[in-house]
């Protein structure tokens, strides 16, 4: 399974970001491309320990059992629900969001597993740094496929 802490996997992700354009259209979902980039950037903030959304009641009950959805080689289902605090509905500027996400990915990868948050994921609960690295890759892959890259 790919992991954002692997240099080759990070390089692949950054190349895919560069293939996006302001005109990229989603194959599913409601976000436009700039909103998707902002959403992914907000998820990076959680993994980096810069944002601390509260655990959902559903996550507290079933989150640890649902981890298997993320930590396998299967693609994520379309239109999955997301963490409410990182739903992006307002207009965003494409180039600014693209650069912000790229810098957060580079910083996260450069900081390594040691600097990954120890705060629980808002749905899945406690994650190891390896689980965060795999989950971030899979989350980004999901959204980039959403926009055809």
Automatic annotation (TrEMBL):
Gene3D superfamilies: dinb family like domain (1.20.120.450)
Domain of life: Bacteria
Record protein name field: DUF1569 domain-containing protein
Originating organism: Viridibacillus arvi
